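Researcher: Next entry in the queue.
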Amino acid sequence: MVMPINLLPKKFLPKKSFITLSKDLKLFNYIASFVFFASVFVFVGIIVINQTRISSLTKKNDTLESSIKNLSQVESQYTLLKMRASFFNEIYGKKGVLSSVDDFEKVLLGNSQILIGKSEIQKDKKQIMATAANSYDLGNFINNMISQGIYKEIIMDSFTFLPGGAYSVTLNLK
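Model: Structure for this entry, 174 residues:
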């Protein structure tokens, strides 16, 4: 059996109170180290969790901003359609406008070779601007309008020869 040999004289041995103090400080050091590392671990965990929350909230914010932009475009289109519908109801509510629109429709249906650039319908004035690829189609268009007998007078305001051989005409209809 092995026996420990202490070569220090007895006067150099620490007192019993120092030995217990040293054991207590050692225990305190272990506890403080454990608390320190545990708190560091908790703080790092909190930082990681908050970072993931921030990134998810940033993504959600970007998604909501793009959704708002898309909805603002839809809202502006909706507002525009609503305004057009009110104008449409206002126009069709006036007496005689519906028959003018129907007359225009009759004139335009039989002329597929004519490109209508602008048409205007008012109570006293009906105007149409048409473009034809050649004079033959333009003549057929005007003959068709005359033969239908819808309008009492057809007044030619302008007649223009366009580059490329096309003709443009503006007609006032009464």
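Model: Residues 16-93 form the longest helix (78 residues).
Researcher: Noted, moving on.
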